[in-house]
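User: I'm new to structure prediction. If I give you an amino acid sequence, what do you actually give back? Let's try with this one:
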Amino acid sequence: MKIKILGTGCKTCKQLHESTVKAVAQLGLEAEVEYVDDVQAMLDLGVMAGPVLVIEDSVVSAGQIPSFEKIKQLITDSKTVVATSKDEMKKSSSCGCGSCCCKN
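Assistant: Good question. You get back a string of structure tokens that encode the predicted 3D arrangement of the chain. For your 104 residues, that looks like this:
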């Protein structure tokens, strides 16, 4: 799972990053948590206010610091969506990736 915190380097952005790292550890997940302080990256996502929490390339929070419990919920919900999508791809023979999932 890939998680990004986008911001300007301010205190609140760093606080969201720290809380997200702690949430991932508490959930026992293998996830890459990256802090990006490039304003252009925020603009590329169409977001004007930081901090921004991005999970698997989807903006799940912007312009605020969610509570610790909400961060855990967002991560857990995103993990479920990713797992479900992968399971559905394995059942489909039309994904076209050429992997073994297509041959079953």
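You can read the tokens as a compact description of the fold. Here is one thing that stands out. The chain is about 45% helix and 20% strand.
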